[in-house]
Amino acid sequence: MYTHKIKRLNQLANQVYAARSIGVVDSFPEVITVAVSSRCNYRCLMCGEWRRPVQEDLPLEMIEKLEPVFPFLSTLYVTGGEPLLYPHLDTLLGKAAAAGCNLQLVTNGLLLDPKKLEMVFKHGLEKLKFSLDAVRPATYKKIRGGDLPKVLENLTRAVALRNALGLRSPYIEVGFVAMRSNIDELTKFVVMSKKLGVDVIYVSYMAVHHEDAFEESLFLDQAHSDEMMLRAAAVAKEVGILLNLPPLFAATPAGSEPGNSFRTGRATCYEPWRNMFLWPSGSVSMCCGGGGHSGSLAEGDFEQMWNSPARVHARSRVNTDKPPKSCENCFTSKQQPNRAATHFDSVELRKRAEARLAAEAVS
């Protein structure tokens, strides 16, 4: 009955702690992102999960450790790998839903048959996100290696079911990881999404984790990337769909930005207080922005992890002029797309990319 008040009080506590840069806290996260499995039915160019030498699922005991925290939690965001391969997905969603959490699920969509769709809908999903990245089947196959027409069929079924049931949620979001192979399709992607009944399009720059994706980075094609993003924003405004775009590489010319499509970095980071990212092994990262390791649920209880030395250190310094090194290259709260570190994991690839741009500038 009072679940919403508990969640609100937890949120207010985190705001106070963040404003004062307090390290050890008595509050709980507001958002937990759970990668329930490293297994996947795809081999996407930009993803590192399927490349891991050991493929694993989040053990049931990890869900049991999370369950006491659910009453304080606003949102549970479920990802992978491919979460529809996770054998305990129904259990996880059910327990979080019972505690009044907003449930969000991201999937490549290929396995979302009518039975699985019914299962995720029954828990009152708030958001269902399809990772698409392309309009042309050939581009989709190059990036993801999958069956785009089948995924679009499943997406269409999800929209139709929601509408037939007269539900306000889940809202349907599609993800577009922007890279050199697909950036020219972004405007057509916007139009396609509108026709499919999608509610939101979320665009992000590809983060390069491996050598084979180096040439795909838009860091190497910045002016063209900005041009295509601006065109897509104009088309989204024209057709009437919400388009969530990353910051441009260059400053947006005065009067040329159509609407409020572009995300901006936040002056204050709240992530060490409000967010955590749980991996299938039980290892925990600070957030989705690259904040680094901050404990493990496999090695202790939740409170030990939540106030681990790494997280306490980050809380005390993230909003100072000397943030933790793991936060310097943030690609969410304080994203800086014109920095190579936003796009490339390794120092070697960053130097190579910067050298490429420097050579092109003098040629």
Strand and helix layout:
Blueprint: H1 3-19, E1 31-35, H2 60-66, E2 75-79, H3 89-98, E3 102-107, H4 114-121, E4 127-131, H5 137-144, H6 148-164, E5 171-178, H7 186-196, E6 200-205, H8 222-239, E7 242-244, H9 271-274, E8 275-278, E9 283-285, E10 293-296, H10 302-306, H11 309-317, H12 325-328, H13 347-362
Parallel strand pairs: 1-2, 1-8, 2-3, 3-4, 4-5, 5-6, 6-7
Antiparallel strand pairs: 8-9, 9-10
> Radius of gyration, Cα only, in angstroms?
20 Å
Mean pLDDT: 90
Shape: globular
Q: How many β-strand runs?
A: 10
- Count of alpha and pi helical runs: 13
What's the story with the biggest beta sheet?
A: 10 strands, mixed
Question: How are the strands of the largest sheet arranged?
Answer: 7-6-5-4-3-2-1-8-9-10
What is the helix content? 25-40%
Order of helices and strands: HEHEHEHEHHEHEHEHEEEHHHH
Q: Helix/strand/pairing class, anyone?
A: alpha/beta
Low-confidence stretches: none
Q: Give the N-terminus to C-terminus distance in angstroms.
A: 67 Å
Hey, roughly how much beta strand do the residues contain?
A: 5-15%
